[in-house]
Amino acid sequence: MNSIRRLLGILCFLSGLAALVGTLTYVTRDKTDGALFRPFYDAPAGSIDVIFAGSSHTMCAVDPAVLAEQFGVSAYDCASPAMPPAPIYYLTAEALRVQSPKAVALDVSGAMYEIKTGGPEFLHVQLDNMKWSVIKIRAIRDLIEDPDDRWEYYFPLIRFHDRWKTLTPEDFEPVRGNTRGARIRDSVFQVTETPEIVPPSYTVPIPADAEAYIRKTIELCQSKGVKVLLFNTPDLAGALFQGRRNAVSALAEEYGVPYVNLMYHLDEMGFDWETDLFDEGHCNRAGAEKVTVYLGRCLAGMLEAS
User: What's the pLDDT tens digit per position in 167-183?
Assistant: First the structure.
């Protein structure tokens, strides 16, 4: 009997300790961009038609409100700044674990980059806002090479324990957001020189990590019967980055999925370099509406066929 009481006491202590650590972790962790992805978990199961998976290019260029209003499509931007294809793969896997979308629109802007992650600052934003699951554990083990560095992702309190000095009342409130993952900007970037658009035939090999995780994301979606649309948003990228994005066409053809490289549809969209960018790499509100409407038309046909 004493052994049972002792065991129950230990279990109660451990449960209380876990609850305390969980609360302290939530309060102290950096909630940057938490209002973008975290509310994804609040969406009713089966309520999202399309997942837009990508980086800040997606957040700034795809407005789910426009898709809902003009096409009756329920969408969510599962995106985060400085997110190459490797973490995008895991965020997509998490989105598919929680929802059952008809399609995933995958932004391949990350095909430009030779890095696997954007570094700890951005990786914490991406991983800390994911709920605990096998997918999150796999992501930590894959994306962080040094086992010693993984501990701060398992226990973010290690990194943020001294943030108590700068806490605000908002840190004690639940993370909420109503933009469905989008971050739409109103300011206009003053373009001094418009980019020279390279021909579609001009390609540059995609970095190995980027190609591997784009493939994994496509294969994951196809294994679940989810349609895939690859896309790329307009920006002021030079020939090297444009060439890498062009190389995605071969992947699209190999997997039998459409690829909409919007650098070659500027006139159809009515895209204007002088009015439609927030900075060199991202659309503002005017550009986002044009991009969203164009992608919405592409997706409408895919969804009708499903």
Answer: 676 766 666 778 999 99
Asked if 299 and 71 touch (Cβ cutoff 8 Å), the reply is yes
State the helix-helix crossing angle for 208-223 and 85-98, rounded to 10 degrees: 10
C-alpha to C-alpha distance for 293 and 289, rounded to whole angstroms: 6
- Cα–Cα distance measured from residue 121 to residue 110, given in angstroms and rounded to the nearest whole number: 18
Is 246 in contact with 203 (CB distance < 8 Å)?
A: yes
Please tell me the distance from the alpha carbon of residue 256 to that of residue 234, in angstroms, as a whole number: 23
* CA distances to 17, 27, 109, 134 from 24, in Å: 11, 5, 36, 23
Query: Hey, what amino acid is at 38?
Result: R
Q: Where are the alpha helices (DSSP H) in the chain?
A: 2-28, 34-37, 56-61, 64-71, 85-98, 120-128, 134-143, 151-154, 157-160, 208-223, 239-255, 266-269, 285-305
Radius of gyration of the chain (CA): 21
* Angle at CA of residue 214, ends 145 and 47, nearest 5°: 105
Other C-beta atoms closer than 10 Å to the C-beta of 148 total 7
pTM over cut 0.85: yes
pLDDT digits over 220-248, tens only?
A: 999 999 999 999 999 999 999 999 999 99
Taking residues 28-50, report their average pLDDT: 83
**DSSP 8-state code for residue 46:** T
